[in-house]
Design brief:
two-stranded antiparallel sheet; TIM Barrel; binds S-adenosylmethionine; eight-stranded parallel beta barrel; 11 strands; globular; 475 residues; alpha/beta; 2 domains; binds iron/sulfur cluster
């Protein structure tokens, strides 16, 4: 029988469910790592190569202390080699907690009658954005429950209001979204408001567990959620974030599934997710799941190190769900974005700055409630460069985030100088005296480490312009 050329073409797998539980388990069951194998895999990653699912399976099954130390040391050196010292800061802003789903782990679920439901009015939204701006925030993520009220038009309008809101020198320069999956038209509407990243977490990739955790509502449809970011890509949003909620099912399965998701997006759209999030389940109002799959602190830090090695060029986001100590360790494995000054209670940034942890108005509890100023101060003490950089997205360098990793000198040329510029701006506008001293010292030290004299001169010139009162300078 003769085949036509068309018959040789691969099937179009975009917008198709791609996760096979048995396949993921077969990788885990087949993985019996030796020390030599772990060493070789870590080396492959340090040579800036993505790991396969089979290789990552060997890492998730590595249990000998020596192997685990090798994995963590590998992630630390990848961070030092590639990511440099900048840590990008952002804050979540919860817009509304009406929700028609019933996620068993979430305080916003429709069956939680004790939850106080609220959607910020336009005035309240503006007041909260101004409060964030007054602290120096420049990047936020807007968070919504899944409800008819939060239509694509509503989300887009909210984004526009936030961009238009100014307080003194304050402005929000990048808005990411964490909201329900949309259809292609809906994603187009939201894209038109000029968003940064659109995040949808699968929560658990394990079908049976997914069914138990999401008994009703739109979110009960596993495949519709799994293909959400395919629709976002089809709509032209090339900057998307994936994630799993750790603690619902075996963490090794979720790590490999996240990788499977990365592979799918890369295969279909030639660009993987911009970021991976790995929220760990926290106590919430009317929380009703058992703790069989709870992830210990050690497992959690290990899984972040494994993710770092598996996808060396994807941004890793850590949130205030984690304690200060865990955050410190995870930062050393190359997680490059954290939230700071976080308040989850709706409207809390403007209304009642000292009150937090009211479980009836929050989605869940957070474990790091330090202010933005405190986080910045501590990052500076640990020799990190706190960054509010939004340059790539505003310069149109999107969808190719792997440039940070693959284009030689990208981080040195763009990320580190932009981190210094945004830090200088923060110091001038918002920092207390002690923080300012530490901040200028960090900038000075990093300037001294720069080897490209031309770049250094230009950067010094721009920092001087910021000192004279200019704003928003970037490369
Ligand atoms: N409603 C949208 C959704 O479910 O995708 C977006 C917002 S939802 C509030 C954002 C994320 O919070 C969820 O995707 C889930 O991973 C996380 N989350 C929910 N309950 C949590 C809990 N008890 N502890 C930690 N994270 C939780
Ligand atoms: Fe609603 Fe999202 Fe909470 Fe589920 S996780 S109940 S969809 S807000």
């Amino acid at each position: 029988m003769k085949f036509t050329p068309e018959q040789y073409q691969l099937p179009d797998i975009s917008m198709q469910p791609f996760l096979d539980d048995k396949e993921i388990w077969s990788f885990i069951d087949a993985a019996h790592p030796s020390l030599e194998q772990v060493e070789a895999i870590v080396k492959k990653s340090l040579d800036k190569n993505r790991l396969s699912i089979a290789e990552t399976a060997l890492l998730v099954n590595a249990r000998e202390p020596e192997m685990i130390e090798m994995i963590k040391a590998g992630a630390r050196s990848l961070k030092e080699k590639v990511y440099g010292k900048r840590i990008v800061l952002f804050a979540p802003l919860y817009v509304g907690n009406y929700c028609s789903n019933n996620c068993r782990y979430c305080g916003f679920k429709v069956s939680n009658k004790s939850a106080v439901r609220k959607t910020l009015t336009k005035q309240e939204l503006i007041a909260n954005v101004q409060a964030l701006e007054e602290h120096g925030q420049k990047r936020i993520i807007l968070v919504f429950g899944e409800h008819n009220t939060y239509s694509p038009g509503f989300i887009a309008e909210t984004v526009r209001t936030v961009y238009d809101t100014r307080k003194n020198h304050g402005e929000i320069r990048r808005i990411n979204i964490n909201a329900a999956p949309l259809d292609i038209e809906g994603f187009k509407t939201v894209k038109a408001s000029n968003i940064g990243t659109y995040q949808v977490f699968q929560e658990t990739y394990h079908h049976e567990t997914y069914k138990i955790c999401h008994p009703s509502g739109r979110k009960a449809d596993y495949d519709y959620r799994l293909t959400a970011l395919d629709r976002a890509m089809e709509a032209g949003i090339d900057d998307v974030g994936i994630g799993a909620l750790f603690g619902l099912y075996d963490w090794r399965f979720e790590v490999l599934s996240l990788l499977r998701h990365v592979n799918h997006l890369e295969a279909c759209y030639n660009v993987g997710p911009h970021t991976i999030s790995f929220p760990r389940i926290q106590d919430a109002s009317e929380y009703d799941l058992d703790d069989r799959y709870q992830v210990t602190d050690e497992e959690f830090t290990r899984l972040v190190a494994i993710l770092r090695l598996a996808v060396p060029y994807t941004g890793l986001i850590l949130t205030a769900r984690e304690s200060e100590a865990t955050r410190k360790e995870v930062l050393s494995y190359g997680c490059s974005q954290i939230d700071a000054g976080t308040k989850l209670e709706i409207g809390a940034y403007a209304k009642n700055p000292d009150v937090n942890q009211n479980l009836n108005k929050e989605q869940f509890k957070i474990n790091d409630d330090r202010t933005l100023a405190q986080v910045i101060d501590e990052l500076l003490e640990a020799d990190y460069i706190p960054s509010f950089c939004t340059a790539c997205y505003r310069k149109g360098r999107t969808g190719q985030h792997f440039m940070e990793f693959s284009v030689p000198g990208f981080i040195k040329k763009f990320c580190t100088p932009n981190a210094m510029l945004t830090l200088a701006e923060y110091i001038m506008d918002y920092a207390g005296e002690a923080t300012a001293v530490k901040g200028w010292q960090v900038i000075e030290r990093n300037l001294n480490e720069m080897d490209n004299e031309g770049y250094k001169t230009e950067l010094i010139h721009r920092i001087e312009r910021i000192k004279q009162g200019e704003h928003d300078l970037y490369f």
